[in-house]
Protein 1
Amino acid sequence: MHSARQHPLRLFSYTTRYFWLLIIPLLRSLYSLFSEQGALATWLRGAWLDLLVLFSILAFAWIRWLSVTFTFDSEKIVLRRGVYITAEDRVYYSKISTLSITQNVLYRLLGASTVYIGTNAGFSDKADLTVVMRRTDADRLYEKVKGSREKSLNYSILPNKLRLILFSLLFSSALSGVLIIVALLLETGKIFDREVEARIILDTLTEAARRVSVFFPPIITVISIVVISAWALSFISNLIVFWGFVLTKCSDSVYVKSGIWAKNRHILKREKVNYIDIKQSFSSKAFRVSSLHINCAGYGSRGRKELSVVLPITTGKEVNGAIKEVFPEYPRPKIELKSSPTSYPGFYFQPLVFATLPAAAFAVFYYFLPTWYAVAYPAFAITLIPSIWLATCKTLSMFTTGVGFGEGYITLRYERMYTFHTVIAPKDRITKIVIRQSPFQYLGGSCTLLIYTASDARAMHPIRGLNLEKTLALLKREGTRIEDGV
Amino acid sequence: MKPAALYAIETAVFILAGALAFLAYRYLGSMKILMYVLIGIFAAAAVIFGAVALPLYFRRTVIYLSSDDISINTGIFFYRREHMKLSAVQYLTSVTFPLGGLLGFNFIIAHGLGGNMILPFLSKKDFDEIFLQIDSRGENGSRAEE
């Protein structure tokens, strides 16, 4: 039995919970500004209140930190919290589907680790327990949970580092990089004045564009800088996360380790894996390169903004080999039903909708603010790129989308938001089946098959453009009878 | 469920309603109509909540525990029957208020597959017994039926 308190670093996150108390010094400062007796004198007279607030914030955080203790032995972990109202969480290792221990650079320097414990309980995709432990405690817990799992011969996969660099370089999605930049801008926007931020970015880009304008038109240079930065960011973040990636399989669990500065470790229970997902982008699909993900409660959950990867980007051959070794019970049922040609136009509906918004915005600028044409036109061209790219992905997905059953498993192949998925799930993990028809699909006799699978978050897999009659027949063969008719 | 918890909440409700009515009487004397309306609302809320809804809730809430299942029948106007297999319980959270042993402010939350079940206002004896029984299933390493 080992008992301890959380790492003192946790105090900082606890203080943020009481930051709302800072409204008192803020209001007092505003009041002193309008005081007739002099702002500084009025402010100084009540400075004791500000100090009291600051002290209260620290005291509340400290009491909260003191009140949280955890105990673990060879079979369970118990987390106790609260001063007046006490609560106790008790989780047995046999029920844990994912144990994740992560460290960012700061945590690593200060010897702290964040421990996430995920079970199949509840309906939230966040970890059931989150504890910031001293690294020694986290290591001890890791060993205890590992010790509770069956012992067997291990099989390890270490992705080839050179290939990882090469594939990350070639196939890292610029879009994800752009999303990261946008997120960064939004985050910094909370701190800095938005106008200042826009000016800094604009000035930097304009300066860079001016320097290379001898060779390229400025607008092209600006777009290129944005895309290249996004791509570089995506590449570096991929590399940091997946460097040193090692996957080890035992009879009942999968162990994953990764990271350069930020060290992450995960223990996943194999019987609690809901499905495996082979993900590809447009370019990686063309070169038969993919990454292997799994859905297991607590692993890669949105609550932790982390990826659910079990094999980073590598060749299709290696991915297939990994599935055979790590999930040998998972067969690869062939696709039996593919999208029907009559449904092909429907695939362009989504890109068309996406293109409508920038087009409408451009039309508004064109008619009502013609002087802004010079800015609006390139902006329209830029915002149209994602729609065109999506239409390209949809074109490819017309020929790859499909569904198949076999040996108690289901294979689902579809595209969603630039990513191509090949999902393999045991049939007993299917929780709901929906057949949806738009008016156009109704006329053309096609449908969209929505397969919901067990997950700690909503997991819906849309298979578009299937022939309705064939879909109903396939589902009937597999023991799901859905009545046709209105 | 422990009757002491009911009496404690009822007392708190009546004290709160009385205090609010007194404040309305003390500070809204110049607005007689508003004062009477507010006092009426506080009194009605206290009677409905403290004398009708709460006793009804406590009377209609029954917890059944067997070696394999746990059930709770509860509700004031809409009666609800909840049932959970002990094997589906993934982990437990116990919540204890100050004087929980005396007043029955003890709760157990059973986190099961896809949902939770809250067992409210348990006497210390029931709390210990239920917690031990559900917990012993976990200790035996009983696997969830997923």
Protein 2
Amino acid sequence: MSASGPLPDAVQEREALAERVSATVLAFPGVAGPHGGRYNDIATFRPGGRLIGVRIGEGDEPVEVGVVLGLDRPIPDVVADLRDAVSRLCGGAAVDITVGDLAVDPAVEGAATDGGGAAAEGAAAVGVDPGRMVR
Amino acid sequence: MTESIPRAGGASTRTTTTSTTITPTTTVSSPARLADETAQGKTTIAASVVQKIAGIAAREISGVHSLGGGVSRAFGALRERIPGGGAGTTNIAGVQVEVGEKQAAIDLDIVVEYGASIVELARAVRRNVITAVERMTGLEVIEVNIAVNDIHLPEIEAAEAIPAPVTPRVE
């Protein structure tokens, strides 16, 4: 588009696919929003901004999708249905799904965040019995 | 020398362990493992997701006054003041989780209401947390450690005043 000339078709195609996948994901029942993953790396770069929550892999790489889910259905059920839908869009490609967070009614979560929080992800192992093995 | 055997075994059987790890079907209630999805892609569930579910499930049991207390509360107060300390991670007081591919371990700090049997309460909390996390995430919960940090006495909060200072009995 810029001085470097028109984008190669493949790139444009992937961007268009990412947009279609994003639209499908966001409209999916049980999905509350997109999520960029732990490092905000589940995203598609394109002119006009970053599309958070979808990354179309090159070649054999899987399609990556990051979502925030609601609590109304078990996560594995939603994820399985979502994977089917996205995979169909992407010609049967493998789809990696990251459930980055839950959208919970703040009233329910309520005092959960009062007084700050305990060690989360990064420091989750603090004070944990070192003999414990989590697969 | 005993140490070298399990270490070497652990390292070399990396490929074979994949077949063995699929076998444990622990509780009947736990849904199908996410392992069978490898061909179609993998599923990652963030620790904050498990944290929220565990926190809500623990709170559902009447007799639980609040979560947190003790060290975790002090930690949280500190973390709040650190810029970016809470970015991307949810800080839920009193709930610490460790999440693997198929399993999760949960540590809870709770404050109980006075009048509840703590042993019964802890059992109920544990049961509810395991059920909720296993059902909602499909992860197998390997343990729920509960630390009762404090007991909440309703009458003291109502009176607010500390009982009259103890006068020395001896002079």
